[in-house]
Amino acid sequence: MTFLSFLTAAFLTSLATPTPNLHTNETLIPPNDFIHIHNLRLHSQSGLHYLNGINYWSCMNLASSTSTGGNLTRLLTELDQLASHGINHVRIMASSEGAPTPQPFRMNPPLFTALGVYDEAVFQGLDRCLHELSVRGIRATMTLGNEWHWSGGFAQYVSWATNNSRIPYPPSWNMTAAPQRPTPRTGWGAYTIEGVDAAPYDAFTNYANSIYDNKIAEEMSKQHIDIVMNRRNSVNGRLYTEDPTIMTWQIANEPQAADPLGYTGPYSIFLLPNPDDRMFPFIQRLASYIRLRSPRQLVSVGLESKQGEYYFKRIHDDPHVDYATTHVWVQNWGVYDMFDPHPENLARAQDFASAFLKNTSTWGKEIGKPVFLEEFGMARNNWEHVGKEYAYLSSAGTGNRDVYFTSIFETVLDDFKSGGAYIGTCPWAYGGIWRPETQVMNTFDMVWAGDPPHEATGWYDLYDTDATMAIIEEQAKDVRGWIEENDGGEGKGEG
Ligand SMILES: *[C@@H]1O[C@H](CO)[C@@H](O)[C@H](O)[C@H]1NC(C)=O
Ligand SMILES: *[C@@H]1O[C@H](CO)[C@@H](O)[C@H](O)[C@H]1NC(C)=O
Ligand SMILES: *[C@@H]1O[C@H](CO)[C@@H](O)[C@H](O)[C@H]1NC(C)=O
Ligand SMILES: *[C@@H]1O[C@H](CO)[C@@H](O)[C@H](O)[C@H]1NC(C)=O
Ligand SMILES: *[C@@H]1O[C@H](CO)[C@@H](O)[C@H](O)[C@H]1NC(C)=O
């Protein structure tokens, strides 16, 4: 009590002169230094702000206590690594939903298991995560929901709202399924539907997307968002809505169109856009709900933007959505094959990504919204593993990925430097010091790879020793140098 009121008062008076009593927190991002948007660009108090991001979705769990399945030693090591590579943004989960009964394929333990029933230890992990990011000058996108089942997400709300109805899981990674390594609980596993309904992906998304017109599910999700946003950080006393470490509240990871017409595959420019898709009003309601609670932080949707121009513009051209998001997944969308070493395979991926980035930059400018490439990834040279015990060992090279990432960084940076809509990149996903060869499931059945618990571990991980991290660092240096030379101070002093 005294601590909190003292801290609030101290923050109010400490803007100009740091209070000695706060020395342990004095390197936090300053209390008024919110990222804001001006002329298609992000700005902080020190000027133009480019997002050198990385996905680090498990931060809240890694930052929680050992008895909650966390590992603070690992977290601090990895955050120091990220800061040393020039990372200034992470995209993290700010929520995970459990169930009355244990559910497979998802983050565990979850932040909450029923409306109002929170795991305070996980919440304290989120507090710790935000604090440690802040002292390293790293800001966050806080993802509040999920189309996919790996954090609970839409499907869990629908299940709660329909008398705990059974979630029709699609085939997902089961680490304890055959083939098993000799030491129990160290992998490998397989995509399996054992023990759960064998659902095609469409059946799963139909179930999850019924949140779009299920008022009870929507209300639950809003009540939860309200609780997260109004959380007071137990480490540094900051109210989440008053913490500039939180750049963005994101509605959900990859919400999908519910009623697509003319859908032709995992990636498609929809031939017949459906203006009546139930996704649109849902996203609109959530965006205004979040904006109302936090006028100084930004709001984004989390859309992949794979559905083409109509969907991109319709979702993002909303007064409560501050910038557009894009994700590009060449293997998942059938453009790239991780077992194919031929140069045409890689070239196809590069061409696709480059066309996708050009399209979305144009669309962003047309609606006057910046665009953030907040997910992209590529597997290692996994053709090197054909015939080995596991396709995703860390021993394969990263040659293709490094070429592909380099071309993405160049395309996005060129776009940014030449006045395009792009404001940064955020590859998927930091696995840091974790490796599949040494993985051991913890008491909560988790390993915290860069890959979420419904996918093969080691697929898209970026390891601390990968050459890819040096490429990330190089482009961060490049953009910092460019900003120093070119930011005439237009953004300075604002905010
Ligand atoms: C932040 O400041 C508060 C108030 O002085 C203090 O209790 C807390 O321990 C500090 N946290 C850290 C991690 O320095
Ligand atoms: C935590 O991570 C460290 C590496 O930083 C590792 O040595 C240790 O075994 C991990 N602890 C647990 C409980 O997993
Ligand atoms: C809810 O589920 C329980 C257990 O499956 C069942 O007994 C009950 O009848 C259901 N209630 C409704 C309203 O469907
Ligand atoms: C995972 O695999 C094990 C071993 O085959 C099986 O017992 C379990 O039911 C599976 N779990 C799920 C959720 O598929
Ligand atoms: C880019 O947009 C054009 C025009 O809508 C479309 O034909 C093309 O498929 C798009 N390419 C990608 C990769 O999005």
Written description of the protein model:
It is an enzyme of class 3 (hydrolase). Belongs to the glycosyl hydrolase 5 (cellulase A) family. It comes from Sporormia fimetaria CBS 119925. The protein has 495 residues and is of the alpha/beta class. The protein has a single domain, classed as Glycosidases (TIM Barrel), CATH 3.20.20. It contains twelve helices and 17 strands. It has helices spanning 2-13, 59-62, 72-84, 120-135, 153-161, 201-208, 215-229, 279-293, 309-316, 343-367, 399-417, 467-486, and strands at residues 36-38, 41-44, 47-48, 51-55, 89-93, 112-114, 117-118, 139-143, 172-174, 190-192, 246-250, 298-300, 324-328, 371-376, 422-425, 430-432, 462-463. The strands form five sheets. The protein has an eight-stranded parallel sheet with strand order 12-11-8-5-4-15-14-13. Strands 1-2-3 form a three-stranded antiparallel sheet, with no helix packed on it. α8 (279-293) links the parallel β11 (246-250) and β12. Residues 269, 309, 352, 355-356, 359 line the site of one 2-acetamido-2-deoxy-beta-D-glucopyranose (NAG). One 2-acetamido-2-deoxy-beta-D-glucopyranose binds at residues 3, 7, 21-22, 24-25, 131, 235-237.
> What is the CATH class name?
Alpha Beta
| Largest beta-sheet characterization | 8 strands, parallel
The tally of domains stands at: 1
Find the CATH topology: TIM Barrel
Residue windows where pLDDT falls under 50 for at least 5 positions: 1-23, 491-495
CATH superfamily: Glycosidases
Q: Label the CATH architecture.
A: Alpha-Beta Barrel
State which percent range the strand residues make up: 5-15%
Helix fraction, binned, reads 25-40%
Arithmetic mean of pLDDT: 92
Strand order of the largest sheet: 12-11-8-5-4-15-14-13
Tally of helical runs: 12
Small molecules bound? 2-acetamido-2-deoxy-beta-D-glucopyranose
